[in-house]
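tool=predict chain=A
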Amino acid sequence: MKLAEAFDLDDACAPSGGAYRVGLVVPEQGPAGIFGPSCEAVSQLAVEQINTEGGVLGRPLEFDILDGGADPHLIRRQLDRLIRTRRIHAVTGWHISAVRQQLSPIVDHRIPYVYTSLYEGGEQTPGVFCSGETPVDQVLPALRWLRDRAGVSRWFIVGDDYVWPRASAAVTRRYARHLAVNILGEAYVPLGNTNWSKVLSNIELSGANGVIMYLVGQDAVTFNRAFAARNLHQSVIRFSPLMEENMLMASGSAATQSLFVAASYFRSLATAGAMDLMGDYIARFGPSAPPLNNAAESCYEGIRTLAELLRRAGSTDIDRMLAVADSVGYDGPRGAMQMHQAHLRQPVYLARADGFDFDILTAL
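tool=predict ok
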């Protein structure tokens, strides 16, 4: 049974002349496909809640799903066709930066695009609003905390070979000297990599006491398993800005010891908004629904952010939305959110993996 059928998502994809339609770009295949079911389900919840509140600008909100795990050039062509035929009026969703780089030129000053994933920073295309974390607010404070509290100052970077890991690593290197930490080595692998032998040997030889993981979805899962099988977890900690509950379960609790994560949302987060979201999610989809996680919750924030932009602008006009963007703010599951220069400022938390969940240690 397809996810749309299992969770009543088919209704969200039916055409409707008066609706404000959103293209939801989320991965349904590839390393990030592990996030897809949760992203779709929580997006449906967000749409239903907004429509219960009266929709946006007097119109019901609906969405079409585009597979964000497909070839980025294919997604670009699909989105361009949907915009030209006026099938959609906005785009949002969690997908990797390689996809965002293909979509940003397509939406430029045509429709609003709320990009929800954590990313490397620097997006400035008019009409693109970023609601995810960036290394300056997410990675750097975490490295400072781990230096001070865990004594970790010798790092090795492991990443997938595309823009987010490489650009984030460049930011990390740039600030390493100011943090009094050393980057002893780097290794990049193709998306979908499963052979970690050479990378793990290089980590061992480097003398690092910490590994920064810029790995997506299933790639981080296979790395965690190989890392633990090599017994590196006994002497080397791992830190990741992209690790969520599905990935913990897939890795196995024995493979996630001494694993730290920085993010703006965890399922165990105890803000009022986070607890409300969890209650609403379980009430809507039941206890067997795909687990809530950071990637999925970002899609919830993306739809909420889009609705707030439209309501504050009082219009679907891009220039009007840009003009009022810095006045957009709200309390969400992550805490207080405030738009600044087309990026949402938000709390970031550091957590340690604890079995199949996260123990939140501090706000960064």
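The radius of gyration is 20 Å. The CA atoms of residues 155 and 210 lie 5 Å apart.
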